[in-house]
Amino acid sequence: MSKPPVRFGLVGFGAWGRFHAQSIAGNPGARLAAITVPSEASRAEAVRLHPGAEVFTDHRSMLAAGGIDIVDVVTPSHTHLAVATDALAAGCDVLLEKPMALTIPDCQAIVRTARRHGRRLAVGHELRLSSQWGEIRRIIDRGVIGDPQYVLVELSRKPYRLGASGWRYDPARVGSWVLEEPIHFFDLARWYLEGAGRPVELHAFGNSRDASRPGLYDNFSAVFRYANGSYAVVSQTLAAFEHHQTVKVSGTRGALWAGWSGALDRTLEPTFFLKVFDGQNLENVSLARHSGEVFELREQIDRCVRMVRGEAPPAATGEDGVWSAGLCLLAEESIRQGRPLPVPDLAEGLA
Fold it and tell me: Whole-model pTM?
């Protein structure tokens, strides 16, 4: 017997939200049941592109109408707390774009709300589902390079898009640029080093071309280490060109190196590679599927369909989201203080 489609309510229909809508509409197990769009012009576009979805002006009206299994939150970062907690309290599961929220207490509050209402919460760290970045974790788990001791995740790219009404360049709404793409890299590095426990110390650095944008760092780097001596480096520059991401992992036996390049971050025709050295032999790993956030988003929507049906856990949990956002916020504090800082147990306070 075929299963009924999982009904998605999409909150946000900006540039990335439209990719979410396409991915939902293109998944045979999903139905794009509703879209929340505050802008009149964007509402008309949502109706034109997705005539089967009911379009609302705000998320509370959508929730009140019912008929939603999971709410997909793709709105500016400062709105995440209210939208996610309202959706969870209304009895919906939630896919929440990163960062979960702009403060650690707010991130923790979202997790507590999900647990209190018995709902599933997935955080949008879709790189875990990548044919490329996810394969690195599988290689580590197979012991090919031994125990990982060093992880580098680095991005060189052109400046960020403004976002609707310029929200991405407004610290009150974006929080910081560390919470944009570096948050994914903190998540990947922590995921790769999961066997080492939790980080114990973090030291970060940042600067900007424009002194009128305090806290919005064009260049950012952080080092965080573990009690066993392993450590990770997360680095990004927005003062470059195109979009080029690198991951390197060195272990007690071997090492690996992966790269991804495109004219834009959402290109459909990127170039990418993964090389693995097991201590004796070097292999160029053949990847069965394209790597890139557009493709990983499709995998994430499919995982959420299975999550709602109780067939699979989220790729990244609320606790994972608290850790990634928390490390970003700690990195910002390290820059402000100009010194390394101890990493607290960010999972405390989630019960």
Answer: 0.95
